[in-house]
Design a protein that fits this description.
alpha/beta; eight-stranded parallel barrel; three-stranded parallel beta sheet; 6 helices; 24 strands; about 40% strand; binds zinc ion
Length: about 325
């Protein structure tokens, strides 16, 4: 069936918004009605009940052990620690309730939610990751959130396929990367932003295919550059040792210079890597993705954020 774009009024903010023909195709595939909320209101409703990275000390309702959780004492929720939640000593079917047609559905769902145990932190198929949330298929991650297929992480957020990394936000398929943001396929680098396929790069912004760069920006396939100028290996080594002399004063100076490097750089409209026919930002290996933000390996997704390995998906966050 051929669909035409339709303008609707958002039931929350009352602004007009457009439902595109591709949205209608998806609704037809899913056999659901079109949404009554604009993108901004739909996403804020989706994320409003979600606690992603605020954690509390709690007590496991089943074994009584102290456990970190997303809820806290005053939530009055039934919290199970990681071992109890994944153990065989309880059966979710015991908490089933019959639907009562005489009562409102929402009231019954609330009643069910208060009765059913909850996992203290969402950690799936992972080992030694009990002090973080939204972690899957990972190992040895401490105080890290939104993590997949990773190993040996500390204090990190939104990491996929990384190993031995610390203090990062949005790092994909990288190793030995520290204090970096929006980085993919990088090795042994620190203080790197919006960069990919780099190694031994420091305090730099928007590098691609580079190695041994210091205080650089907007470079492609370059080696041994300092402040965007080519140097020989000896000059590089000398400056590198000066910058990393272990003194906090030198480090603070380097951070100030790094901020300046970022400010003076040319900023591209969006961070796309191996991505086609898409609208959004920070996309890697994505195709035909519309209003997609922080996506990896996605196809035919619309109105989504923080999304991995997904196809034909709409209005979703962190899946
Ligand atoms: Zn709205
Ligand atoms: Zn327990």
């Amino acid at each position: 069936m051929e669909y035409k774009a339709e303008t609707k009024k958002c039931q929350n903010c009352k602004n007009d918004f457009t439902i595109e023909p591709d949205d209608f195709s998806f609704y037809e595939k899913m056999d659901v009605n079109s949404l009554d909320l604009c993108f901004q209101c739909g996403m804020s409703q989706l994320t409003s009940l979600r606690n992603e990275r605020i954690v509390y000390w709690d007590k496991c309702y089943k074994c009584g052990e102290k456990t970190m959780s997303l809820y806290g004492d005053d939530s009055h929720k039934i919290i199970y620690c990681h071992d109890c939640w994944w153990g065989d000593n309880w059966d979710g079917l015991d908490y089933g309730l019959d639907y009562d047609e005489s009562k409102p559905l929402i009231e019954q769902i609330k009643n069910l939610q208060n009765k059913v145990p909850r996992e203290a932190l969402i950690v799936l198929n992972s080992t030694n990751c009990n002090y973080g949330n939204n972690i899957r298929d990972s190992k040895d991650c401490y105080f890290s959130f939104l993590i997949a297929n990773s190993e040996h992480l500390l204090y990190s957020m939104w990491i996929v396929g990384a190993k031995d990394c610390m203090d990062n936000h949005k790092v994909v398929d990288s190793e030995l990367v520290i204090h970096s943001v929006d980085v993919a396929n990088c090795y042994k680098s620190a203080y790197l932003h919006d960069s990919s396929d780099c190694s031994f790069c420091y305090f730099s912004y928007d590098l691609k295919g580079c190695n041994n760069c210091l205080f650089c920006s907007n470079l492609r396939n370059k080696s041994y550059y300092i402040r965007n100028k080519k140097v020989n290996k000896e000059e590089y080594k000398k400056e590198f040792e000066k910058v990393f002399d272990g003194s906090f004063t030198t480090f603070k100076k380097a951070i100030t210079e790094y901020k300046n490097v970022q400010e003076m750089a040319i900023h591209r409209f969006a961070f796309f890597l191996k991505t086609e026919n898409s609208i959004g930002n920070y996309l890697q290996n994505c195709n035909n993705s519309y209003r997609c933000f922080d996506g990896v390996n996605c196809q035919d997704v619309r109105n989504v954020a923080s999304i991995l390995y997904s196809k034909d998906t709409h209005y979703s966050y962190a899946i």
